[in-house]
């Protein structure tokens, strides 16, 4: 029979903890400048329409409210129906 070898556990060296905040601070200072704040855009025609008309359907739940507003927006965007041109009757 073969003898079993005893295995001694390997002792790991403790890893010194480094402060993370200092590392991040150094990267930010040495890296690219922070992005400039974004400029606020002017509201679109849709945004203004929703703001002006949302009170008309405020009694509905949110999902149904936006369905109703989308139908209203579609009608508003199409505009009034085109007027029919009057045909002039020619004299015979």
Description:
This protein has about 90 residues and is mainly alpha-helical. The chain has a domain at about 45-80. About 40% of the residues lie in helices and about 0% in strands. The mean pLDDT is about 80.
Helices and strands in order:
Layout: H1 20-30, H2 45-53, H3 62-78
Structural descriptors:
92 residues; mainly alpha; 40% helix
Summarize the structure.
By secondary structure, the chain is mainly alpha-helical. It is built from three helices and no strands.
**Structural class assignment:** mainly alpha
How far apart are the first and last residues' alpha carbons, in Å? Answer: 130 Å
How would the global form be characterised?
elongated
Percent helix among the residues?
Answer: 40-55%
Strand content: under 5%
- Main sheet: strands, sense, barrel: none
Low-confidence stretches: none
Radius of gyration: 36 Å
Q: In sequence order, what are the helices and strands, one letter per element?
A: HHH
Number of strands: 0
- Mean pLDDT across the residues is 79
